[in-house]
Amino acid sequence: MFDFEYVSGPRFNLFSLLRIVAVYGSYILCNIGFDWIVGFRETGVVGIHLIDFIIFVVIFTEELYVAHKRQLLSKTVREIAIHEQLASWRSYVVEGLTYGVPIGIIWSLFSGRWIYGLVFTVILVSLLPFVLFGITKLTSRFRSLFFEVMPELVLIVGSGKQTMAFVKAMENRFPKLADRIKILDSTWIGNGTHKSPPGKFFKGIREVKEILKEEAIDRVYILLPIRSCYDDVIFVIQACLEQGVAVVVRPIFDLEGLKGFVRQDSLTRDGTYELATGSPLLYSMPHRMIKRLMDITIASLAIIFTSPLMLATALFVKLSSPGPVFFKQVRLGYRKRPFTVYKFRTMYEDAEQRVAELEAQSETGGAAFKMRHDPRITPVGRILRCFSIDELPQLFNVLKGDMSLVGPRPLPVRDHERFKDYKHFRRMAVRPGITGLWQVSGRSNVPFNEWMQMDLDYIDNWSLKMDLSILFKTIRAVFTGHGAV
After folding, report:
1. Are residues 141 and 159 in the same domain?
2. Which residues, including other chains, have CB under 8 Å from residue 274's CB and lie 6 or more apart?
3. Residues 6+ apart with CB under 8 A from 385
4. Burial call 366-391: b when 16+ CB within 10 Å, e when fewer
5. DSSP at 408
6. For residue range 160-206, what is the model confidence (pLDDT) as tens digits?
7. Are residues 162 and 226 part of one domain?
C-alpha cells in the first residue's frame, strides 16, 4: 500500500524544543506557585534536583514521540497542519493530559503527599492546553512571516484504489484540503464508493503539460500502476521537472536519467521520492529562513532610508502628467499565484491600451514587451527608469511576502500567456524578485531567451552567496543605468 502520510527528515526540530521549554516552564511555574500558596518546599526549584531532572527526561521522551507522530504528515499538508491539525481544543486537552498526568504522578511520588499531588496535577493539566495552544499560534505567526504559508493545490495522476485511499485519508485528516485536490487520468476508474471524481477531473495524461501551464498546481502525486503505465509516468515526471512543479513518485521502476533530480533527503519509509526542481538549498529551511529574514530586514531599512526620495518622486510623478502616482498591475508570482505589483507610474495613462499598436516594435524577441524608445514613457518616467527608482514601491511587495529582493522578475499575465516553451514556467518555482541575474547582466540589452535561461540558472544554482553578489552588483547597475529602458 502506498503510505503517502509518512515523510522523512528530522523528527525533533525547533518547534519540538519550544514545546519542551513551554511544558517544563509550566511545571516550574506551577511548582513555585504551589510552594508559595501552601508553603510546601520539599521539592524546591533552586538548583538541579532529581525530580526536576526526571520530569525533564519524561517531557523530552514524550515530545520525541509526539514529534514522531507529527512527522506522519505529508509535505503536501504540512503548512496546513500548522494551522489546522492542532487547531482542535480536544487535541490540546489530550496533550495536556499526556504531559500533565505523568508529571503529577512523579511529583506525588517524590513528595509523598497524594492530595497535594492531585491538586498539582489538576492545575498543571488545566494550564498546559493554553500553553501548547499559544506555542502553536506563535509558531504559526513566525512561519507566516518568514515562509510562504498557503494551502497547497494537489494534482493526483491516477484514479484507482490508491488514489481513492489517498483522497479519503486527506478528507479525514484535513477536510479543507479535499477541495484543493485535482485528479488526472486517461479515464475515470474509481471504486465501489467513488463512482465519480471527488474533485476536479482532467482527462488525458498527455495533456499534463497544458494543465500545469494553465492551473496553479503545487505538487503532483503519481499513483499509476508502474508496469503498465511506465511511459506515462516518465512523461508526467519530465513535464513537472520542466515547469518546476514538485512531483512525488514511488520509484519501484528505473529512474535512469532522472537520478540527478532526486532529493536525497526525501526518501520515505515506503521508498517514495520527491524530485527536486532547482538548487538543493531551496529545500533547506535554514537557508530559506535566512533569505526571508534578509528580505524583511533590508526592505525595511531601504524603505526608511529612501522614504524622502519616494516622497519627492511621488510629487514629481503627480505634477509631471495626469494620472495616479502609483502603477498597479496583476502579475503571476510564486507557483503561479497572482498578486498586485506596485511601481511609480512612468507612462501616460493610456499606456496599456497602446501595447497592441507597438507590439511589432518589441526588441526582446520573445513574449515580454520591451522597447528602448517607448513613446508611452513620460519624461520624468524615463529618468526614474534609468536609475530604477520606479521599482522602490516593490519593497512593500517584499514585506508582504509577494516578492523577494532577488529572484526572477514577475511578468504580466499577458506575457505568461505568450510563453511558447514550457520550461519558462519553471521560473515561477521561486518567489519573484526586484532584482536578479537579468538586471545585473544588461537588462533590456539581453535577448528574451537568454533572459529566461538566466532565471533558470539562478534557480538551479541558488545560494545566499549568489543573492548577496546580485544585490551588490545591482547597486552598481542602478548608478550606471546600464541596460535601462
Report:
1. no
2. 75, 246, 247, 248, 263, 266
3. 346, 377, 484, 485
4. bbbbbbeebebbbebbebbbeebbbb
5. P
6. 777 777 777 767 666 666 678 888 887 766 554 555 555 678 888 88
7. yes
